[in-house]
Design brief:
Elements: H1 18-34, E1 46-58, E2 63-74, E3 79-85, E4 89-96, E5 99-101, E6 104-106, E7 109-118, E8 123-132, E9 138-141, E10 153-156, E11 177-186, E12 190-193, E13 196-204, E14 207-218, E15 225-228, E16 230-237, E17 240-247, H2 254-258, H3 261-272, E18 281-286, E19 293-294, E20 299-303, H4 321-330, E21 337-339, H5 346-364, H6 366-382, H7 405-421, H8 423-437, E22 440-442, H9 444-455, H10 460-468, E23 474-482, E24 487-494, E25 507-515, E26 518-526, E27 530-536, E28 543-546, E29 555-558, H11 562-571, H12 575-586, H13 592-604, H14 608-619, H15 624-636, H16 640-650, H17 657-668, H18 673-686, H19 691-700, H20 707-719, H21 725-732, H22 738-748, H23 756-765, H24 771-784, H25 790-798, H26 806-818, H27 820-825, H28 853-879
Helix pairs in contact: 1-28, 3-4, 4-5, 5-6, 5-7, 6-7, 7-8, 8-9, 11-12, 12-14, 13-14, 13-15, 14-16, 15-16, 16-18, 17-18, 18-19, 18-20, 19-20, 20-22, 21-22, 22-24, 23-24, 24-26, 25-26, 26-28
This protein binds zinc ion.
């Protein structure tokens, strides 16, 4: 899955609505962090082989009415009872082989005693009739009095262990079953479930029954149901149905965002040597999705934020392709071959992340993939809590199993494995892995075994350091040139602290030495704590590169002179080496030569990401020369993904009238909506004389999906001018677009903090069903610091329509209001200049007085993590581009 797509923290590189998504991310982090998923696979008493799942929905009461028949085969002699996971469901009856049976319920379990001790191989059909109002797993998105025209949407989200909140079942990955899903819904609806559509039959009284059948077994967390008022677009891949669904009214956005899906299916089928394994591929985009995307077998569900407005689509370098290719990649890695337990989740997520870059490389070119990988590495190192944790582990206390190790580092590990084995051997190994494990559950050792069988290369050491071991190498590098010996001596020191699971790393690398007579490449093996390598060089080098092209996940401090960095920034052939040089030059700050070189990179580098990075770097120089270069570059930089970065960089220049005038004009009019949005944010931070009027005007103006309005509403919080309150109250009100409301409520959290009427007004929004509004309100109340909101938050905890992911978030804000001292003492994000810090609330410490210190500390930790995540999202949004076509 993608978190923001619940499977991936940093995945939304390409999503334009990151801030909206941040809400989903926060929710997921809390959900995952606050609940310990079972790290080890369970023992099994039976094999669940097939489930016939019949569902109806009581929309008014948000209830599911179910009848499921599980066909099971006993695995152990002497089994006297069986049990299913079942949470919050009312079990009406159970029958065994059509005979009424006794049953008991316990916390999250339905227990069924067997009539007599059963032996291995005995088969039972267990029919369960039930109903319930799911608190998670299945969600109802419905029209209401404020949004009477909203389409009805019902959708599920099973991963990690949430299917049993709407369906009594075996809810752990280490079992596989086929399914028949029978959905009876109003005749005007669409439905989607796993597998092939077998029939649609008139069920009378304006109802219709849809029957879907999945004949390829997969795990229960991959079961999906989507039903409601959707529009459908049909596509195909070699005759196989490929379908896209959008909530009613947005069908025209499907093709423009999703039409590269068949090309991706084709690419992955060819690369992996195993054809796409399911009977169809559908992608249903749903509102208020709790994740970014979820790879249900043959039927992915994605956030409707991926249905980008056609006018905004050209503003993103890779469009929605990362999300689409990620979830598609899971159809092989995750669905066809599934991790046996959550400790091995990287076998799902690392592969899906890797396959994103495989698509990027094939479709957008090597450099675009290099950019993604380089950015991923930086992001992974920034998430410092990940460093000491191995990818395969059983303790999810310090970090959810769905963290940057499973995704970002997992993807990097596969990239490095491909490089070490070579493209051909690597894919030969993957083909074998998929073939021998098709339809099975796996652990990392299965990957090692398959790769060795296919390639005769033992990858145990490789996995030992990168997957079972923690961290990544950190280097201290330097070289000297001996003119007499005509020799370069390169000293390579591994400086990571050798502790816990972090050891020394061993890997092949390339050193490139460039002299006036040209570049020369030298392969080396790095393995020692410190070693000096000697290379011949006819004259003093102009440039020495260690690990040319950044092929290894690492950080490095290379001691070079300014002139060498300048040369590297201009002349290195690979993106990663030029990017590293720009970063190094940025540390030299107020140096005319450096500023000129950054300006040169900003104008002339052939790769957009270098130009954008040069803009970021100049933004931190903050001299008139730097702002001048940035403003000049606006005349030549047409790509929205570069332009918006330049504008964001300009937002660092305080009290500079030229900059202020430029931002003002961009905010009013520019060829790029993203640049205009960045200008509005910058104006909120810089607070020039006209800022309130400019932001108010932007709120009043129309743009695709209210893109600029929402930016301006957020910027008003950063601006901190209380005169904006009436406008924010207007846009926070029911009936306005949900995302605009969330932005306005967010900003209200920061203004007129003494005004209890605002607190009261926000508290009223807590009772609304719309997740983004609720979330924004919870955090806005927390950031106002007005303790009079505590009873409203406490009442919210008692409400019966609360998805349970929200509970820890609400408790966190209550703790924050009760104990502001503790909240102040904890670290804050590096900057709150972006004006969006409410979404990453201040951390909360233990509330000792209330005997909740464990909970408090945990919340503190999680909230801090969320803050980091938000900062990252913001920086990603700034840096990101989307699809070239
Ligand atoms: Zn995923």
């Amino acid at each position: 899955m993608i978190l923001i797509s619940p499977c991936r923290p940093n995945h939304p590189r390409s999503c334009p609505l990151l801030l909206a998504l941040a809400a989903a991310l926060l929710m997921f982090l809390f959900a995952a962090g606050a609940r310990a998923d079972e790290p080890y696979a369970r023992n099994r008493d039976y094999d669940l082989q097939h489930s016939k799942i019949s569902l109806r929905f009581d929309i008014e009461n948000k209830k599911v009415l179910g009848d499921v028949i599980h066909s099971i085969s006993i695995l152990r002699d002497g089994t006297t009872r069986i049990w299913f996971d079942s949470a919050g469901l009312t079990i009406e009856s159970v029958s065994l082989n059509k005979i009424a049976a006794k049953f008991e319920t316990a916390a999250e379990r339905l227990i069924v005693p067997l009539p007599a001790a059963a032996n291995a191989g005995e088969k039972f059909d267990v029919e369960i009739r039930y109903q319930g109002k799911p608190t998670k797993g299945l969600y109802f998105i419905l029209p209401d009095k404020d949004y009477p025209d909203r389409p009805i949407e019902i959708w599920t989200q099973g991963e990690s262990q949430d299917t049993h909140y709407y369906l009594p079942t075996y809810d752990y990955p280490n079992d596989r079953l086929t399914t028949e899903t029978i959905l009876t819904v109003p005749a005007t609806w669409q439905t989607v479930a796993n597998g092939k559509l077998i029939s649609t039959v008139d069920a009378g009284k304006g109802m219709k029954t849809w029957t879907w059948k999945e004949n390829v077994p997969s795990s229960t967390y991959l079961i999906t149901v989507v039903a409601g008022e959707f529009e459908e677009v049909k596509d195909s891949w070699h005759g196989m149905p490929v379908t896209y669904y959008a909530p009613k009214g947005r069908g025209d956005r499907l093709a423009i965002n999703y039409n590269r899906t068949p090309a991706m299916i084709d690419l992955f089928s060819k690369k992996l040597g195993v054809d796409y394994p399911w009977e169809k591929y559908s992608q249903a985009m749903v509102d208020e999705f709790v994740a970014g995307g979820m790879e249900n077998s043959s039927a992915t569900t994605n956030t409707s934020n991926s249905l980008v407005h056609p006018k905004l689509v050209p503003e993103y370098v890779t469009g929605q392709d990362e999300l689409i290719s990620h979830e598609l990649g899971h159809q092989w890695f995750g669905d066809l071959v599934t991790c046996k337990d959550w400790g091995n989740i990287w076998l799902n997520e690392g592969f899906a992340t890797f396959l994103e870059t495989v698509w990027t490389e094939a479709h957008f070119g090597k450099e675009e993939a290099d950019i993604a990988r380089w950015e991923n590495a930086r992001e992974w190192f920034e998430e410092t809590h990940l460093y000491k944790l191995p990818i395969v582990r059983r303790d999810f206390e310090d970090s959810s199993e769905f963290d940057g190790n499973a995704y970002t580092k997992g993807g990097w590990v596969l990239y490095m494995l491909r490089r070490e084995l070579g493209e051909e051997s690597f894919y030969l190994g993957l083909k074998h892995y998929l073939e021998v494990n098709r339809g099975k559950n796996v652990v990392t050792a299965d990957l090692a075994k398959a790769m060795e069988e296919a390639t005769h290369v033992n990858i145990d050491r490789f996995l030992g350091q990168w997957v079972y071991g923690a961290g990544a190498p950190k280097f201290d590098l330097g070289y000297g040139y001996d003119a007499d010996k005509k020799q370069v001596a390169l000293t390579v020191k591994q400086t990571q602290k050798l502790e816990g699971r972090v050891g020394l790393f061993r890997f092949p690398a390339e050193v490139e030495i460039t002299t006036p007579s040209g570049p020369k490449l030298f392969p080396i093996i790095v393995s020692d704590a410190a070693k000096t390598y000697l290379f011949p060089a006819s004259s003093a080098p102009l440039m020495v590169l260690f690990d040319k092209g950044g092929q290894v996940l690492k950080s490095a401090e290379f001691h070079k002179e300014k002139q060498e960095w300048l040369y590297q920034a201009k002349n290195a052939g690979e993106f990663a080496d030029r990017a590293d040089a720009i970063v190094a030059l940025g540390k030299l700050k107020n140096d005319d030569e450096v500023i000129a070189a950054l300006g040169d990179a900003l104008r002339n580098d052939k790769v957009w990401a270098i130009r954008a990075l040069a803009a970021d770097t100049l933004g931190h120089v903050e001299t008139p020369a730097a702002s001048k270069l940035l403003i000049e570059a606006l005349t030549t930089s047409k790509e929205p993904w570069v332009r918006s970065r330049i504008v964001t960089a300009l937002g660092n220049f305080k009290e500079d009238e030229v900059v202020e005038a430029k931002l003002e004009s961009i905010a009013h009019e520019d060829l790029s909506y993203r640049a205009r949005s960045a200008a509005l944010q910058a104006i909120g931070r810089l607070r020039p004389p006209n800022s309130l009027a400019t932001l108010q005007a932007a709120v009043a103006a129309d743009s695709p999906d209210g893109f600029l309005r929402n930016s301006a509403l957020r910027a008003l919080g950063a601006l901190g001018n209380d005169r904006a309150v009436p406008l924010l109250l207007e846009w926070a009100a029911p009936g306005k677009p949900i995302e605009s409301r969330a932005a306005a409520i967010n900003s209200l959290g920061r203004l007129e903090k003494e005004n209890k009427d605002i607190t009261k007004q926000i508290a009223v929004y807590l009772s609304e069903a719309h997740f983004p509004v609720r979330m924004a309100s919870v955090y806005a109340l927390g950031s106002r610091g007005d303790a009079s909101a505590i009873p409203a938050l406490e009442d919210l905890l008692k409400s019966n329509d609360l998805s349970i992911e929200m509970v820890p978030m609400i408790k966190g804000q209550i703790a924050r209001l009760k104990n502001p001292q503790a909240a102040r003492g904890l670290p804050h994000p590096p900057s709150d200049e972006d004006g969006d810090d409410e979404e990453g609330p201040a951390a909360v410490d233990a509330d000792e007085d209330h005997g909740q210190s464990d909970v408090g500390q945990r919340l503190g930790k999680l909230e801090h993590l969320m803050q980091e995540m938000n900062e990252r999202l913001k920086s990603i949004e700034g840096r990101l581009p989307p699809p070239k076509h």
